[in-house]
UniProtKB/TrEMBL annotation:
GO terms for biological process, alphabetical: negative regulation of DNA-templated transcription
Keyword set includes Glycosyltransferase: no
Entry protein name: BlaI/MecI/CopY family transcriptional regulator
Family matches, as Pfam families: Penicillinase_R (PF03965)
The family this protein is said to belong to: Belongs to the BlaI transcriptional regulatory family.
Alphabetically ordered keywords of this record: DNA-binding, Transcription, Transcription regulation
Organism: Clostridium chromiireducens
GO molecular function terms listed in the Swiss-Prot or TrEMBL record: DNA binding
InterPro entries found in the cross-reference section: BlaI_family, WH-like_DNA-bd_sf, WH_DNA-bd_sf
Gene3D superfamilies found in the cross-reference section: Penicillinase repressor domain (1.10.4040.10), Winged helix-like DNA-binding domain superfamily/Winged helix DNA-binding domain (1.10.10.10)
Keyword Cell inner membrane: no
Amino acid sequence: MHDFPKISNAEWEVMKVIWNHPEINSVNIIHELQDKVEWKPPTIKSLINRLLNKNIIGFKKSGNEYLYFSLIPKDECIKIESKSFINKVFSGSIKSMLLTFIESKEISERDIEDLKNILKQSSQKKG
């Protein structure tokens, strides 16, 4: 796994847009975020700069504009953030996390069946 700085919730919103495009300029990032958040364009540009400074995104100059792209795949970021969340909130116990969701009725019976199948397939691959 790639070792990279923590991504804030606001930065995640920008990353979701960037991950959906191989390359995207700030105008289009702002346009895509307009309906989702109430940030002004300078705020979004600041978030882009923070992501650049953290080496989470890169850019290339094309004419008069900068095209931004992710340096870290979305699935890798999700794995790292998920592990961080489980460690912070559930002391690293996936079992505790699942029990919490099941007991609070956050997981449907169908989801439980799907999880059983996933776990069964996973144990077959390991065995």
